[in-house]
Specification:
mainly alpha
Amino acid sequence: MIGISQLRGGSSLRQRTWTAVILGPVVIGAVLWLPPSGFAVFLALVVLVGAWEWGGLVGLETRTARGGYLGLVAVIIGGLWFAPDWRPWIIGLGVGWWVIQVVILTRIRRIDPRSGPDVAAALAGLLVLSAPWGALVQLRASAATGPLLVLFLFLLVWIADSAAYFVGRRWGRAKLAPVLSPGKTLAGVYGALVSAVLGGLILSFLFSVSVPEILLCAVLCAITVAISIVGDLYESLLKRRRGVKDSGQLLPGHGGMLDRIDSLTAAAPVFTLGISYLGWVHP
């Protein structure tokens, strides 16, 4: 994540800015103007780059092993494309998995280095990477509201991320999870949640819904942002186990693809399930 994380030096900050300036319009263009199938392919490419990096984080050291892992994720994504009835199931599994991680991550008091393949984390990655693909493709599929909702989700996470950074930098004292990510503070989380509630109110205004739905939407956005932080913390756990700072070096100043999408891997299934419950899309 960009906002909650500590910013690096000046040259790195310039790199981050230029990378964001270039990638931002590409992502927004893909969401708004690509047809659903084109968006699915674009998103699949992003996820598969993430799968390659995930393979490294779980100890798949050879290119053959990482390529095989990438291929397995591709097969799952392909299955979800050709069998859309499976998507609600994998979205639900993704939500359940992240809820479990909330409990697990809060209990971590030390992180032991690991070497060699981590089978459990490799298996978890199949769900962590495929569930958000299914969720975002499902969310985007609605011709009337899909692009708006996907773009809103992206902005919700990005803005909450930045709010967390600036609030945490100004008022942050107590650490959120010092073992996993020393830079994150409770004040930063509160700042992110406030921005999420405001985002939910704005989204409700766009849909012109009733008061109960406004409240539900605000709660959903807060939960989405909260779980997005869990996604960031989980990737931090994987990186600390391997003793690396970034998942890769693909994006100058930002690290790897996973470093950019870790929050969305957790947020997308939760948001899509919640929006479906509100009846604004139908998975």
